[in-house]
């Protein structure tokens, strides 16, 4: 395993396809299928979708390219990449490292819930028509069962980085992502045949501009950053396994397009069903775990559809979970010159410790709140509203103003490079600062 500690012998993606599948696997996750539909439901449907697409293409694409460039130029994980620019920037890398611990602490808990629902639908432990709000709430409030499910999810995620970049991460994504896309298409098409599905489509695609406001814009931008995996060095890490001559503009374009299409398909899978059964589209975080089981209960072959849906959700969470872990694993293995296997065990153990209080936020520790938030909510809020935007601002400033990445790593087109650098230096950082201050209710 000594091989990975030097840049010269750093693993490389074996093909462009492998890289696209890995980055798409990271991007497409609970953010697209669990978070996107309910946030869209709460923010006016089509207007939100429009804002989300515009911001993904014109704003988020810049830090996304920036992360890939940093990784491609430095060929190191996030801590060493910053240190290679300047030793004094080490703290910025560590901040990304901390973020990569915070996110799994709540993300893996939700991943554990998906494992639980797979068991329920697979084994039929609860009759399909009796899976309801109480099923979810009783399960999440228990001390042991959700923890065990979370641990199963963590171990499954860790198994792939443990095996290495090519044998583990690459193979997992190459196999899981195509399966995921087929299942998603199947469920989205099925959704279209439900009675009244047209209402769901109208909600998604016919914008009502009276719903447009500043909060929608900011929420859409935050969602775009989260779902594109920008802001904690994930794409720095995946970019560091790229060959020098790989075309990151084309890959980023495919990534943004693929991620957006999948988010839209997730909406097409969910909203026609929600409208068909007269359920509430803005039901919040429970939309997927509470509302959809009601749909499955009313459908013929509900157990089968429920199972496919939760396996799909699990696959999405798994490939993102792998990328979340890889950030900290790659960072410490080269920083402390330890083997990949040891790094994986250390990081999984640290995350496990923090997962205990986030899991118990729905039961044992429900009464313990800081500023009105449970431990789960604190981790989610701090990571999504503080750390991700902060890391992204730092990234843009450091790469734009100090590193000034080599043009040939990005493009041969001078004009494109100048526009990219202009947006990177002058436009994206102030927009992100605004996002962060509004998100924190400072403005
Ligand atoms: N993009 C993932 C999702 O949408 O679920 C979450 C995520 C993965 C965020 C990796 C950040 C990250 F670095």
Task: Provide structural commentary.
The chain is an all-alpha fold. The chain has helices at 16-27, 30-42, 46-74, 78-85, 90-123, 133-141, 145-163, 165-192, 197-205, 214-227, 234-239, 248-276, 287-298, 302-335, 340-360, 375-403, 414-439. The mean pLDDT is 90. It binds 4-fluoro-L-phenylalanine (PFF).
Can you give me a brief rundown of this structure?
The protein is mostly helical and 443 residues long. The chain has helices spanning 16-27, 30-42, 46-74, 78-85, 90-123, 133-141, 145-163, 165-192, 197-205, 214-227, 234-239, 248-276, 287-298, 302-335, 340-360, 375-403, 414-439.
Topology diagram in text:
Layout: H1 16-27, H2 30-42, H3 46-74, H4 78-85, H5 90-123, H6 133-141, H7 145-163, H8 165-192, H9 197-205, H10 214-227, H11 234-239, H12 248-276, H13 287-298, H14 302-335, H15 340-360, H16 375-403, H17 414-439
Helix pairs in contact: 1-8, 1-12, 1-14, 2-10, 2-12, 3-10, 3-12, 3-16, 3-17, 4-5, 5-7, 5-14, 5-15, 5-16, 7-8, 7-14, 7-15, 8-12, 8-14, 9-12, 13-14, 14-15, 15-16, 16-17
Helix content: over 70%
Ligand identities: 4-fluoro-L-phenylalanine
Characterize the overall form: globular
Q: Characterize the quaternary organization of these chains.
A: single chain
Largest sheet: none
Q: Calculate Rg over CA atoms.
A: 21 Å
User: How widely separated are the two ends?
Assistant: 49 Å
Q: What's the number of helices?
A: 17
What is the average per-residue confidence, as pLDDT, rounded to a whole number?
90
């Amino acid at each position: 395993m000594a091989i990975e500690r030097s840049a010269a012998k750093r693993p490389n993606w074996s093909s462009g396809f492998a890289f696209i599948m890995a980055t798409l696997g990271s991007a497409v996750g609970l953010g697209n299928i669990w978070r996107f539909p309910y946030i869209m439901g709460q923010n006016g449907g089509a207007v939100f979708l429009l804002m989300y697409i515009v911001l993904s293409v014109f704003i988020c694409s810049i830090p996304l390219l920036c992360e890939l460039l940093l990784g491609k130029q430095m060929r190191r994980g996030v801590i060493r990449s910053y240190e290679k620019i300047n030793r004094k920037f080490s703290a910025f890398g560590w901040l990304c490292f901390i973020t990569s611990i915070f996110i799994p602490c709540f993300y893996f808990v939700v991943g554990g819930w998906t494992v639980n629902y797979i068991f329920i639908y697979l084994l039929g432990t609860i009759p399909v028509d009796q899976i309801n709000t109480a099923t979810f709430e009783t399960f999440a409030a228990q001390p042991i069962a959700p923890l065990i499910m979370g641990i199963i999810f963590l171990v499954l995620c860790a198994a792939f980085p443990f095996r290495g970049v090519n044998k583990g991460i690459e193979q997992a994504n190459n196999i899981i992502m195509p399966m995921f896309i087929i299942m998603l298409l199947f469920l989205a098409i099925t959704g279209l045949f439900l009675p009244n599905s047209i209402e769901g489509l109208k909600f998604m695609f016919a914008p009502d501009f009276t719903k447009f406001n500043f909060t929608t814009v900011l929420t859409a931008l935050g969602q775009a950053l989260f779902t594109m995996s920008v802001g904690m060095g994930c794409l720095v890490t995946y970019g560091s396994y790229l060959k020098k001559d790989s075309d990151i503009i084309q890959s980023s374009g495919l990534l943004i397009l693929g991620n957006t299409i999948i988010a839209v398909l997730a909406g097409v899978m969910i909203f026609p069903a929600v409208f068909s059964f007269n359920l509430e589209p803005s039901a919040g975080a429970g939309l997927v775990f509470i509302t959809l089981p009601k749909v499955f209960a009313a459908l013929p072959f509900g157990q089968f559809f429920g199972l496919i849906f939760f396996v799909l959700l699990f696959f999405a969470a798994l490939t993102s979970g792998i990328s979340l872990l890889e950030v900290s694993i790659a960072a410490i293995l080269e920083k402390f010159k330890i083997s990949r296997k040891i790094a994986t065990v250390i990081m999984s153990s640290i995350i496990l410790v923090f997962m205990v209080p986030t899991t118990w936020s729905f039961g044992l520790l429900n009464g313990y709140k800081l500023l009105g938030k449970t431990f789960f909510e604190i981790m989610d809020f701090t990571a999504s509203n503080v750390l991700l935007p902060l890391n992204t601002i730092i990234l843009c400033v450091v790469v734009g103003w100090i590193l000034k990445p080599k043009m040939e790593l990005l493009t041969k087109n001078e004009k494109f490079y100048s526009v990219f650098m202009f947006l990177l230096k002058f436009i994206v950082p102030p927009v992100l600062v605004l996002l962060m201050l509004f998100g924190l209710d400072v403005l």
